[in-house]
Amino acid sequence: MDLKEKDSRILQALQKWAETIVQRAKESGDVYMELPVRTLRNVIYDEEKGFLRMGERLARREFLNVAHAKRFLQTSLVAAVVADLIREGITTSLRDVYYRVKHTIPGTRENTVDQQTETDRAIVDLETMLGFVREELHIFSKGGKGKVAGPFELVEHVYTSDGKVRTVEFDGTNLGMGGWPVPPIVEPERVEIKKVDADFVLVIEKDAVWQRFHEDKFWDEHNCIIVTGSGQADRPTRRFVHRLHYEFKLPVYVLTDADPWGWYIYSVYKQGSINLSYLSPQLATPAAKFLGMAISDYHRFNFDRTVKIKLKDVDIKRLNELRRYPWFKHKEWQQEFDLMEKEGFKMELEAGASKYFRFITKEYVPAKLEQKLFLP
Amino acid sequence: MDLKEKDSRILQALQKWAETIVQRAKESGDVYMELPVRTLRNVIYDEEKGFLRMGERLARREFLNVAHAKRFLQTSLVAAVVADLIREGITTSLRDVYYRVKHTIPGTRENTVDQQTETDRAIVDLETMLGFVREELHIFSKGGKGKVAGPFELVEHVYTSDGKVRTVEFDGTNLGMGGWPVPPIVEPERVEIKKVDADFVLVIEKDAVWQRFHEDKFWDEHNCIIVTGSGQADRPTRRFVHRLHYEFKLPVYVLTDADPWGWYIYSVYKQGSINLSYLSPQLATPAAKFLGMAISDYHRFNFDRTVKIKLKDVDIKRLNELRRYPWFKHKEWQQEFDLMEKEGFKMELEAGASKYFRFITKEYVPAKLEQKLFLP
């Protein structure tokens, strides 16, 4: 489906959504929209699907209810902006949408919105009611900070606001030092993954470490696609990994620091995040496995003691939060958590440089892959 | 000069530097290195050159001085690591260098280094003593977060650690949505700018706003190169802008939020930063001009009052710091500072969306360019 078809579907859905509201008003005088509840109580860890998802609870937002009226207005205004964006063939940022919607209501001193959180929330309203993700509605957050390299071919269909389309081809084995920069929107109508010759996807938490794998052509030696989200991954990077997994049946392995923050980054690639639980079907990759680093690797690979970083209170607090997440209940993870607390240290991906710069690409990761030393 | 020639020059310089130290030891028994003082007192705002630079003061670091011995050791160890990196054809991160150098000194409980700041500082020692920048010494910080598009052609010579070189060509008018990702190292031996058909360079503070300019093909309509550093610019982005200016005589205009933080980002592109004053000859672009946003633009372009963001104490504090920087002493800037304080608000690049999404690319920037409404 190309962008035009996709856009016309979305406009139809918007139209239908608006008509339903009008219809209700005409029939019963009740002006309301019905939308999924997004409080924590309606976030479910679905063991079968293997990801966090939104529950079934719905709530009504009523126009003639003082407590609801402003949010009703905000969601309606944002819906109108989305329709404009699509008709004009423009993409834009969350921040832009906020300013676009923010105005003083004539005859009052009241603004339509006062904070960006209000338009952001209205965009989530639309995502959940229409069943399209924000990026399909032409809205992104920031520029995208992911990087990719390896044996794949893709075509970007670059839609410019003058109505023209450029197609740009990328060969993942012939990229510059910066790799393929994951754009702010990677939906299939814009990023068409043509061909993948890889055996697996290796996701690397830190961009500086990804550079090591890229320079060492790890993707060539091990026939894989290397991805980094540069820290906590943004939505397009997670979406791209998700697409590689589902469209090309590639196993996904994730490599992070051995600390509670890195481990949580892994879990976000895998199960999704609490805030974006409604997007897990588009973003999560429940089959992802954890490749490293684990505290047990310290002994297994005989690291120098100088690489240990003493745990702080804030680390232990976060560790205990991880312990309680249902998706970390596996015995193997609980053992890792216990080991970290007992040994009292964390460890970074760069620790391998203590031996030699290419230890991580030449020994550590190959050994973990070969011996299948994964955590669930 | 290709990478091999460059590398052999650096190895020669390292060799000579080391031999000088040995020579001195043999002749007088004095083992010392001489290096520029890097305290604030030796940072000079050079009005003639138009940038911050390091002064002439030198200091000795002596091996047989208890206060100096450890730093002497650290700098020597890092010098050895740099020589290894160059010989092995490897680039790496500051964090990696830290781990590479960190070891317990045999027979003691003392580590060579305890914090990354120590190896970072040693790398600066080498930069200032050898006259090569860190990136020429094969060391980068992070992955690079800049993006570029427009009428230019460049070739990346991608050196991989197996000794092979790939050349990858980029046409800046045919890039994906993510543009050309500025790699962690943009020295000429790796990034060769072949051809530039642009009339000027437009630097945009925020990546989400850069996306607007890219989608609207501003670079085509106004025949320019658009660059973003995604907030405070990293070294490679500043270096690339510097190269565009000096190698192709392009004027550089900078577009930031109308707030003290955005204005400081502008000044870093232009005059360099206090911390990296010794790098201004490689990084600064003193001829850069400020295109916007200014507080005076609020009235000039008749913005809606809802775009005003009330100044906080921390903004006013920063504003007063800016007032005192010698490079902001121009009358025009001081008037802007006064105006901001008097009116009590700041304003963001996204404010234009309050009118319509493409206001910034269709009206605001074209008008500022046409009427040459620059600040120095």
Of all protein chain pairs, which has the greatest interface, and how many residues does each chain bring to it? A-B, 69 and 69 residues
Amount of beta strand of chain A: 15-25%
Question: How would you state the average pLDDT of chain A, rounded?
Answer: 95
What's the overall geometry of chain A? globular
Question: What is the CATH topology of the largest domain in chain A?
Answer: Dna Topoisomerase Vi A Subunit, Chain: A, domain 2
- CATH class of the largest domain in chain A reads Alpha Beta
Question: What's the SSE blueprint?
Answer:
Two copies of one chain form a homodimer.
Chain A: H1 3-28, E1 32-36, E2 43-46, E3 51-54, E4 58-62, H2 69-88, E5 92-93, H3 94-101, H4 116-130, E6 139-140, E7 147-149, E8 152-159, E9 165-171, E10 180-181, E11 191-196, E12 200-204, H5 207-215, H6 218-221, E13 224-228, H7 235-248, E14 252-255, H8 260-271, H9 280-283, E15 289-292, H10 295-300, E16 309-310, H11 313-324, H12 331-343, E17 345-346, H13 359-370
Parallel strand pairs in A: 5-6, 12-13, 12-14, 14-15
Antiparallel strand pairs in A: 1-4, 2-3, 7-10, 7-13, 8-9, 8-11, 16-17
Helix pairs in contact in A: 1-2, 2-4, 3-4, 11-12
